[in-house]
Amino acid sequence: MDDDRVWSFEKSLWTGGADHYRELVDDECLMVLPQPPFVLSGSQAIEAVANTPRWSEVEISEGQIARPQEGLIVIAYHAKAARDGETYEAHCTSTYRRLSHDKWSVVQHQQTPPLVGSAAEKAD
User: Fold this and answer.
1) Residue range 3-115 in CATH 3.40.50.1860
2) Cα(63)–Cα(11) distance, rounded to whole angstroms?
3) Which of 16, 43, 71, 114 is deepest in the core (most CB within 10 A)?
């Protein structure tokens, strides 16, 4: 999968419908999201995200792509998403594995919203 397709694939996970999401996320996916229960696996991860409202737009920046071995892609990026007057930002990672020639699935996804204040500020 070339770089442009990687980013299109990732954006579609933010904006696509529930069926699209279920199609692209692996049954063995592990996911960490910034709300309880925080750590999700398998169908729990798929249903948690599939049952939330989709974002109407997402902007991806600071993107990096690694291909540590054939059939495995790891990405890291900053996302800014919006829907119905609501906005959301997070630093994210996703890992894809190739299932067949042109079919990929998400096996890992993580979101970390920006920290509010630094650790040094909190210690004062």
Assistant:
1) no
2) 12
3) 16
Q: What is the pLDDT of residue 14?
A: 93
Q: What is the mean pLDDT of residues 50-55?
A: 84
The C-alpha atoms of residue 15 and residue 102 are separated, in whole angstroms, by 21
Residue 1, classed as helix, strand or coil, is coil
pLDDT, tens only, 107-118: 999 999 998 765
In three-state secondary structure terms, 14 is: helix
Task: Kindly state the DSSP code that residue 124 receives in the 8-state scheme.
Answer: -
Instruction: Report cis status (omega within 30 of 0) of the bond before 34.
Output: no
Tokens of 71: 């059939």
Domains of the chain, residue spans = 3-115
Q: Are 73 and 96 in contact (CB under 8 A)?
A: yes
With H, G, I as helix, E, B as strand and everything else as coil, classify residue 113.
coil
